[in-house]
Structure formats: C-alpha cells, structure tokens
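Budget justification note: compute hours in this period were largely spent on complex prediction jobs such as the one shown. Inputs:
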Amino acid sequence: MPDRNKTISVTVRLFTGLDRDAREVDQNPRDGITFNLPKGTRLRRLTKELDLPDRYSLAYFVNGKQAGLLRKLKEGDEIACLRPSAGG
Amino acid sequence: MPGGYMGKYCVVNLTDGATETVEPSDEFYRKYLSGYGIGAAVIAQRQKQGVDPLSSESHLGFCSGLLTGSGALFSGRFMVVGKSPLTGGWGDANAGGFFSRELKKAGYDAVFFTGRAEKPVWAYLTEKGVEIRDASALWGKDAIETEELIRDKLGDRRVQIAAIGRAGEKISLISGVVTDGGRIAARSGLGAVMGSKGLKAFAVRGKQKIPVAEPDRIKTINKKFMKEFNESKVADRLSVRFMNFSSRIISRTGISIPAQASTLRELYKRYGTPGLTVYSALTGDMPIKNWDGVGYLDYTLDSAAKNSDESVIRYQKRKYACHSCPLACGGIIDIKKGRYSGTEGHKPEYETLGAFGGLLLHDDLDTIIEINEMCNRAGIDTISTGTCIAFATECFLKGIIDEKITDGLKLGWGKSDEIVKLTEMIIQREGLGDILADGVKRAVEKIGPDSAEFAMHAGGQELPMHDSRLDPGYGIAYQCEPTPGRHTISCFLYANLFNVEKIFPEARRMVRGAKGKIAKNVRRYTAGTFYMQLINSGGMCLFGALTSRIPIVEYLNAVTGWGLSADDYFRTGERILSLRKAFNVREGIKPEDQKLSDRAMGKLPLKEGPLKNVTIDMDALQSEFFQTVGWDPATGGPTREKMKELGIDMLT
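Corresponding output:
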C-alpha cells in the first residue's frame, strides 16, 4: 500500500497510437493506466517513465487542460497524452 | 495537344436527350485549369442569372481534376458543381475514390446536365458519348444498391458510378452525390439538384490514355516526393515542443493548434481522420453540445475516447486508398449493430464522429457507424444532418418544439435511439424530418425566430466540426468564401501546414507586407485559399496538402507542359476564387446573407474550457480579407476592375 503522504496516484490515458508505442501497455487506453508517483513529480518524469516516443513533440492535457511538461502532478490527476493533430 | 486535360466537355439536356460537345482552347484550361475552375466558368456563362437551382434551366456539372490520372499523387478527386439550392450561391462538393480518373478516361474533362427528365433516368458516359437510360427500377434504391445494380446490368465491375440516394430523390437540400460504395460529395446540397433533374445516377467508363507532357518528369517528382513523405522532419516538431513548454493555446490572433504535417501524416496513415477526435474535443476544435458546451467537461474524455483512434480502428477490416493516394486514410469496416449489421461500410470520418458525437453529447460508436451507413446510402450530408438534430434537440429542450412536432420523440442529448429515429425521419422527410431535411436555416423559418439562436450555419450551410472560436481563420472560410460554412478551404492552421510562403514568392511578399499579426494571418489565409483553388481544380486532396508539401507547380508544369511560374499559378488560384464569388454576387448574395451564427463567433462567450471568454471579431477579419483579395465590402465579391484584371469580366 503506497504511503499517501509521500505518493500520489494519477491516471494516464494514451491516444493516437501511443499506447502501442509506450512501454507499459497491455491495457485498453480508454481505461487508462494508474501510476503511483512520489509527491511533486512533474509531467516530464512521467513521460520519461512511460518511454513515450518523441515525447517533447506530444500534446498533454491534465484534467482536460493543456499542460506543459514542467507541470507538477497532483493526486487524482487524469492525464491525456496525444500526438497533436488537426483538420479532417 | 498539351497534357493533363482531355480537351472537351459536354452538356447533356435531360429534357430531350440532346448532347453538345465543346472543345475549349488551351487558353481556357490555362485560365481555369479543370475541376471547379472550368465548372464555374462553364456554368457562369451558360446558366442565366437568377435561375432556380431546382428548375430545369439549372446546370449540374461533374468535373475531374487537371492532374487526375496523370501519375501525380493525391489527384483522385472529382467535383460536383452548380448553383446551390441550400445557399442560393455557388455550390460545389468533392469526393475521392475512382470516379474522377474514369471520367477522364472516357475522354471528357467534365459533363454538365441541364433540363429535366420526364421519368427517372441514369446516364452512361463512354468514349462514344452519353447514353440516357431508364432508371425506373433504380428509383427508390439506396446509392450503394444503385451502384451494384448498374454494375450488374453492364456486366462491368470497373464502371464508376455517382448516384443519389433517397435524400436526393426527395430533394433534400442537404443531400449529396455518392460514389465508391459510400464516399459522398456532400456539401452545398447538390444531390437535390440531381434529384430535381430526375437523374438517379451517372456512370462512367473509358479506356483512353490521359495525355501527360512529361511522364518521366512526373516519375522523378514522385520519387523525390515519396522520399520526403516517408520522413519525419526534426524542424517540423520544433513548434510543438515550444507549445508544450509554454502551455499556451493562442486563439484570436495566432496559430491555435500546434499540429505538424509529419504527425498528421502518421495519424492519417494509421487511423484516418478518426485519429483526431480526442485531440479536437480537448483543444476546443470540436463543437460540443450544439456549440454551447465544452470538451472534457460536457463531453468527457471517456466519451471522446469511444469515438477516436483505437476505438474506431478496431472495426476496420482493411484500409482504403483513393486513386493515386499514398496516404490511404480511408477504411472499410464491419458494421456490428442496427439495420446494416453484418455488412461492410466505410469508416466514419472525423466530421461524422463529431456531428453525431460531441455535437450531440453522444458516444455510442456502434450507433454512429449505423448512422454513417444510413447517411451514405441515403446520400445525405452527415455534418448537416447532425447539426439539424442538434438544433432540434436544443429547440425541444428549450420548449420551442414539443412532442406533437417531434411525433412523440423525446429528444435529448446523447440519446441514441432518438438520434437514429430522427435521422431516418430526415432521410424519409417524415414529420419533423421534413422540416429538417432542408437544413437549419429553413427550419428556423418554419419553427419560428426563437429557434434562430440554435441554428448553426453560415449562409444556410451547416457548420463543420471545427470551431471558429479556436481558429478564427475558419470564421473567414465560413463567412466569406463562395461556399459558406466549409472547412476544407483555408484557416490559420491550414495556411501554415500548406507552406504557401515556400511555394509562391507572391504569397511571401503578401505576408511580409502585412502590418500586425491579424493582417499577417489573414494574408496567409488568403494565400492558402488561392492555393486550395489549384488543389481543387487539379483534382488534388486537401489531406495531401495538409500532410506534405505537394509539388503542385512542378506537377502542373510536368503534366501540361505550360512552363508557368509559381506566381502565374497563384494568380490562377485568385482568378478561380474570384470567379466563384462573383457568381454569388450575380445571384444576389450579399455579405450579410453569409453571416456566421452568433455562437460560432462567441457573441455570448463560453464560460469554461479552452474557448473561455473568446469572441472573434468577424467584421474586422472580413474587412481585412476583402481588402486583401480586392473585393468590394458592399457586394462581398470582386470589383469590376478586379474582374477585368483577372479576365473574368463576363460576369459583370
């Protein structure tokens, strides 16, 4: 059982094929992957742990708002990682 | 004869079956290329001012592209053209597949239909000319059945067919023309024009060689292009990297979405346009809840994910590429639910996933796939149909219409059964469906002015699934272009992805000469729309232009042998755009007639989300655009001087 005073739990959802490309993935991207991380972890570290391809060129949303890689994560955050796109 | 074009078009009078074949000069093709360029030139000259598009005097054209069948990549699109019964101005719609190449192989660049058949007919074009045949047995069949029946009758699987479904037969003003088992030239309501002429289908088959001035040069261009196309450029990614660190979405004045051509390319290859759904919902690109909601808050990540990338691709049996396309963004899927369960159909596009997804707060993908197939078979525009249902839903929830009008349907956000039922009613023109089958603008005229706020359109054309509050360039496209409410032209993002300043020196000068960010963006937008006239007249695909730097000038010169400069073609783009808009002016369409709905401008801005408090100043954007293209703000079209300068003064 992780220590709630020292860790946070966040959910990561990978879209646009990132679930296939990342290291962690036997799971349905729609359900998300739960991570327990040390308090104060920034998004940058999480993306590194996920081993996302070309992670500096992806778009990140934390709880529906676009976020930078330096964003500090909080308990319960829902993180969406995508390849940025438009048109169609 | 120089290459690219077949050198003739024909005009078929369905009233008496008379056919006139015209062989235009090389000069004509240099001026208008092909596609909607020659479509607009022919219809502007042959069709009198003020003709009702649903009358026998109107003309409906099927035009191939100048580059189609030449070996140029992305060149498989054809265009349906005519006066739009939906907007009252110029109308065009295009689709990919294999129809365009076959039309040229039959020896024609375009075929125009006028008159009205006494009984339903279908037309069959070969090198021998056009034959008119009885369509009594086809009338009432859906567009896909019609294709199959014609192929069976001719005993030829290679014949290509453009047909209308039930919606076109019933003169729905949001109906289109269907090819390739479910691809649809959907916008502008041209299916209704086809239906009004009693023309159920137009089949084409030919074996002629399409002339190309320098075929070896085309091969060299393609080889070089494909090498770059398969690479991901580092420089391409820098802007996104910056955007991530700065965490900004710049709306109002800037480039709103940090998309990059190489990423878009990978996504289209892997998923097609459904690869965009989640990102569009999160950034604010996808209109939510009839443009009054917010992605993530109103349309949750769960809901968007159900209609995006991996979720959609699970249904895909095989990929589908149009003629000469290296991207292959299409897909054939298994339909698992509803009336077409157990059959195959086309994968729904992002626009359909948005119009029957976020716009209606609806997330049942099986239902959306069923509706997509219903609409494709009926030959009706999914963007307009979804928008009509969103309009009716809001009217119902706000008490403007009741169950007497909805025939007992209890409309509400996200209700699959009601959405399917109302789609069917629109296709069959039953009850409320009869009111909605002519689009939201006319529905307001029948339901009452209180409903106007909920009708999302510009000039009568329902708005696409790209929010003008996020990228105000869409606002210009929706409000100022010859075909209002259209997303496949230009916007601030597209203009960047097009790389227009690298293709055309004149575009570079135009943008550099602008003062201020808005002026720069509008000028870049303008260069983008000139470029898109070349793309469309060439029969090229927007997605090719978004995902790569198409060597358009090289292609045009290698195919035609004209040896014109990039700026010569830039001028041609301006001419075609101005001609199409001059058509609207001649038909009495004023700038105020194409006004964008208030919600799409953010007149009452959203209170949450990425578009919080965003209002776009469409008057300023329109004024800047008209000034850039040299159009008269009073008429919304080119001045007499401008038309003379461009050589299109036959419309003055």
